[in-house]
Amino acid sequence: MSVLKRPILTEKATALSNLGKYVFEVSKTANKIEIANAIEKMYGVSVASVDTMRAIGRKKTRMSRGKAISGITSTYKKAIVTLKKGEVIDIYADTV
Q1: 69 with 89: CB under 8 angstroms?
Q2: Rounded to 5 degrees, what are φ and ψ at 56?
Q3: What is the pLDDT of residue 21?
């Protein structure tokens, strides 16, 4: 199983990319060293630091045909990767 799942492309993540920080969804069992090695191998850049956090799943309810359907979103882990000065990842070139 791959350590990196996908880059997270939100407004906040895009604002962080101007500071040399990039956000990725990663495997729940991945540690900071594995994440740094995967980023360096995939994108050919030097990683300065990695910060990780778990986004806990939350309850969501929606209406369907007059009934309320409730469920829970998935829990996932994300990593904020800070690159060394002058390094850049072109995430938008990888997306289709």
Answers
A1: no
A2: -75, 140
A3: 96
CB atoms within 10 A of CB 38: 20
pLDDT digits (tens, 9 = 90+) for 23-74: 999 999 999 999 999 999 999 999 999 999 999 999 999 999 999 999 999 9
CA distance 78 to 7: 9
- Chain-centre distance of CA 49, in angstroms? 14
CA 91, CA 70: separation in Å to the nearest integer? 34
Decide if pLDDT at 95 tops 70. Answer: no
Q: Using the CB atoms, write b or e for 8-37: b if 16+ within 10 Å.
A: beeeebeebbeebbbbbebbeebeeebbbe
Expressed in angstroms, the distance from the first to the final Cα of the chain is: 22
Residue 57: closest CA among 75, 76, 78:
75
pLDDT reported for residue 90? 84
